Amino acid sequence: MNAQLSLPPKVTARAFARLAEINADGPVRPLRVAVSGGGCSGFQYDIRFDETADDDLILNGEGQSVVVDPVSLPFLAGATIDFTDELIGARFVIENPNASSSCGCGTSFSI
What we know:
Hypothetical Protein Aq_1857, Chain: A; 9 strands; mainly beta
């Protein structure tokens, strides 16, 4: 991993706005962004709604939260968490400066 290590991940206003839309009709739950081993490139992103743990990094905006566990944090240092709505589908995406390569679907990467 590189010098980006000291930078926390960022969440775009577009991602927080989408979280607000999703959480508008129910309980407000944080979006967890984690990294685990696997996928076609060695590591894969796990993006899901979850509860906050005591040791999570919590990123807040627009009344919404994105949480990252301490094990995943070095892999996501300096990354940008965004939301995209394109012809092929709408999804949360991660622009990760630590990834040396990624698969075509964007959910798997290597360092």
